[in-house]
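Recall the central idea of this unit: under ordinary conditions, the amino acid sequence of a chain determines the structure it adopts. In this exercise we apply that idea directly, starting from the sequence alone.
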Amino acid sequence: MPTTCFPTRFMLTLPENPFKEKIEHGKPLLLLGSCFSDEIGLHLQQNGFDALVNPGGTLFHPLAIAKLLNWALDDNQTLRTFPRADVWLSWDLAGSIYAMSEAALHEKLSQLKIQLRKALLDSSHLLITFGSAWAYRLQEDQNLVANCHKQPSQLFSKEQTTVQTIVETWKALIHLIQRHNPTISFVFTVSPVRHAKDGLHENNLSKARLLLAVEALVDATNCAYFPAYELILDQLRDYAFFKEDGVHPNEKATAHVWDYFKRNFCSDQTGQVLKEWEALQLALQHKLLYPESQEAQHHNARLAQMKIAFKEKYPKFIATQL
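Accordingly, the structure predicted from this sequence is:
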């Protein structure tokens, strides 16, 4: 009989890669970039971390993210604004940042700059997710935009940003941020979300540029790479781990990435806190069959004591769900 050619393993194993600069509760975190930053940021917030996630909206291009951070640290830089019908937007931010007048939008931008600058000065870690190397250049001023805001395509030209441009821009930015916050750590990620509208081959070329750029950047001081791209596309691989659109990882996939993140980026002490938090959450989710019974009243009293004890034991844990 012919021998089988099927592999004996159903899943490739990604090696552990612990980051020496661990994240801890009580230390502010800043996450910027593609929607994958939103997903990991949500897990961090739900698990008691002080995490500021995409205050300027979801941004996909490395140069758009860099421009936002440079603007936050430089009072002489401005962001471009324009009206779309009766709504005011910025070419340098996501569509979630808008106002109904130019003055109101500028006030929002002023508050955003204050918020971002404080986060850059205070955060222990800056987590950046690059989404795409495809860039859109506004014909009017020949500058790249962070978002086209559903404007006519003839207003823009499309191009691929080179690895060299990304690396040079971000090396200069890393040095700038480190001058303001010498102890900050940088964690770079490439989003596993496929930009299928660009074309699958074109998306692969884009991701390749981002991976090469990040490889060059992690050689800098206090920089690391988090392999979200490989965890989803090389380890899981199956469309069962994607949402119906076939490009965005679903809840199971994100949970898998979160587990890897905890093991490699959280200290042992932080890991213990998260285990106790998970146990408390399971207890809180327990549904009582007879909520009016004495047994239920005793159970609720125990839960109340557990919540008080957890808050007192871990005062730096931001327990928004308690």
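The chain has two domains: 29-266, 268-322.
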